[in-house]
Amino acid sequence: MGKALRILGWSLGGLALALGAAALGLKLYFTQARLKALTTDYAARNLRRQVTFDSVALNFSGLSITNLRVSEYPDFKRGEFFSAAAFSVRPSFRALLRRELKINSVSADALSMRVAELKPDTYNFSDLLAPAPHAPKPAAQAPRQAAPAPQLSVSSLKVRGSRFSYANAAGDLAVTLRDINLSASGISPSGLFPVEADFTMAVASPYFKGEIPAALKGRLALGGFAPAKGRAEIEKASFSLGGVRAEAKGSLSNLLEPDAKLALTVKEFSTADLKTVFKGLPPKILLPEIEADTDFKLTAKDAVLRSVTLRAGPVKAVIKGRAAWNPRVAYDLLADLKAQVPEIDTTLLARKAKAFPVPKGLKLPLAEFSARLRLKDGSAEIPSFALESVPLSLSGRASVNFAGALKASGAVKAEIKNLARAAEIAPELLKAYALSGAASAALDFSYAGKPAVSGKAALNGLGASFAGHALTGLSGGIDFTMDSASAKSLRGKLDGSDFSASFKARDLLRHPKAEFDLDLARLALKDPPASAPAAGAAGKGPAGAEPFYLDVSGAARVGAIEHPNFRCGPASLKLSLTNISDDLKALDGSASFTAGPGKLSELYALAGKHKAAKVALYPLLVLQKASKAAKGLKLPDFNNIDFERIEGDYAFADGLMKLNRSSLTSEVADVNSSGTINLPAEKLDMKISTALKKASGISMSVPAGMLVKGTFSDPQVKLDVKSVAEQPAVKKALDKLAPGANKLLKGLFKK
Q1: Can you tell me the distance from the alpha carbon of 190 to that of 188, in angstroms, rounded to the nearest whole number?
Q2: At what angle do helices 728-737 and 741-750 cross, to 10 degrees?
């Protein structure tokens, strides 16, 4: 036994001595100079680049290199391609005896690699992939059975403080991964092994500039070093952009062309969290947490989205389809969207989104929105969309082609269930109108260089207040296009009085032309509210601009008209006017009316507030002024008079109003006017004939005349001496004073 122990001791001592001698031999043979020479020679022959390092150690514990540097092709004059502050590989020699390739540890500090695109599909490492020039072809050998490759495993891999950068050939995209830390253990060709990594990605491009810190924890399988058979399980991945933080987890197979199922969560954030990245965002708009479940296939040519489900607060979307980029950009995506839109006060939104044209004063109600969208190679199809809220609903479809010149078409249906509730959307604008009732519309639209719209609207008991009037119970249908509208029958009540109407209007966007027919039981004229004076002439537009013109024709029948200055019984109106404008300079056409019995007083008050009434009653306004000027005729007070009938028949040409007929019949006098009135200049050229009746205290069998010149504000009135001479009382008085004087006067007037 003692002898055996001595033999074992001498054997172990001999083995230790042999190992020590071998290590000493390795160290003496592989000197720094020899290792540098071998490395430089290998790099020149195989990498075609320069390689330098400070020191290298090769012994039984492994290989370690410090300050390794690899040049760009062909030398350091072109820059540095790769570097490492320290690199160490420590294999297990015991495992080699079992035909296993086991590495106890691999570590690297401050790795740095720069990838640059020199031109499309050519990079600064492309020379490493090319075959060596003049490489001799190996001699043909008899096939033999290859020995199985040894099993490879790495117990520990650690990379610290490393960096990777990429820049494209155009110079407008740069991506840098810095502060890379990577650790893995139990690495084998087939089994899953744990991996952890963290880094910061910096991107600089015309569309985005910022940094994205990221971290990853999971397990990885290399698939026997066949990437297509590899897979990964992501326990947790996190990244952030500005102040926005997101997490992901899931799995993927095929590391070369991943089949992935990932769940992504973006934490609740505010737009202020992205201000450092996107300068134009409105501040402090709170956005909900976003969740996404994805199932997709990614290749070098395309991405196939089997299912992408997004949830963000009240918003949910499902996306499916394919997007390709090689050999050409193509896509076919189908999206289903549902959202609950909360109540929104746009005044508050506008304060936060000052950089955007958000209208103020709108109070949008809670609404449910849904839509289906298909995007395919330059076109968008929306087979359905719908918006539901308490006051109104919308639904429709649309098609848009933007591959070439923009084209679009579609249809929309709208129903306003409650106009009073709908008016609450824009209270500052609509509250004063006290809207009520319901309405609906259906329209088709298209765009091919210019927009086109056509449709029908239905009014159901519509009510509104405007200019002191109350409209109630308005019902009927309206056909409309972009520049026309028509209604065959509209019925309702105006200030409690029944009315029915029809109308047609066309050329609404250029020179509106309207036709109407109206029956109204009673019209209560209201004075419009006084408006604050505006800078410049309101409604006249910029100097030199084309005036706004309007053409109107039609007929109206009114059972009664009521106004503090004008009241009458039945009235009828017919008109056919063209080129109606604010200045009346181009007014053409004709108008006629009858009204009575009734009473008028101080018509100036009415005319000053209603321009249409001023034009219609112009002769009567002139009569009131002229009657005061002609004191010698002792005419009644036409400012306050009961009348049996008023008639007017006017013709217009370039703003000149010709009185074909203008008459007033009353108990005290009958008045007829003729001549012309220049409406723009308010110049008068009229003759007013007045026949007084017994009720006035004077009876005239022949009317007395007044010639009126000047302007409306300053009329010049002269008695028509000839008409005065025709008065029987005047004739009789003249014959008594001077027989034959009457004939003399007639002769003078004939000359």
Answers
A1: 6
A2: 120
Total length of the chain: 751
Cα distances (angstroms) measured from residue 580 to each of 511, 587, 659 = 10, 5, 18
Which residues, listed in sequence order, are joined to residue 459 by a DSSP beta bridge?
A: 439, 476
Q: How many helices and strands, by DSSP H and E, does the chain display?
A: 13, 45
Which SS3 state, helix, strand or coil, does residue 526 take? coil
pLDDT 10s digits, 157-168 = 999 999 999 998
Sequence-distant (6+) residues with CB within 8 A of 354 are: 282
The pLDDT value given to residue 372:
96
502: which strand partners?
517
| Beta pairing, strands 80-92 & 62-71 | antiparallel
Please give the model's pTM, rounded to 2 decimal places. 0.70
423, 466 Cβ separation under 8 angstroms:
no
**Count of Cβ atoms closer than 10 Å to residue 195 Cβ:** 20
Number of other residues whose CB lies within 10 A of the CB of residue 632:
9
Please give the backbone phi and psi of residue 414, each rounded to the nearest 5 degrees, phi first: -130, 140
What is the 8-class DSSP label of residue 46? I
Is the pLDDT reported for residue 21 higher than 50? Answer: no
Using the CB atoms, write b or e for 538-574: b if 16+ within 10 Å: eeeeeeeeeeebebbbbebebebbebebbbbeebebe
DSSP code, position 548: P
Asked if 86 and 137 count as a contact pair (C-beta separation under 8 A), the reply is no
Extract the tokens encoding 37. 């020479």
What tokens were used for 733? 């008085």
What is the pLDDT, as a whole number, of residue 241? 86
Token pair for 12: 């172990």
Q: Under 8 Å CB-to-CB from 624, ≥6 apart: which residues?
A: 603, 604, 638, 639
Least-confidence region, from 129-138, 180-189, 291-300, 479-488: 129-138
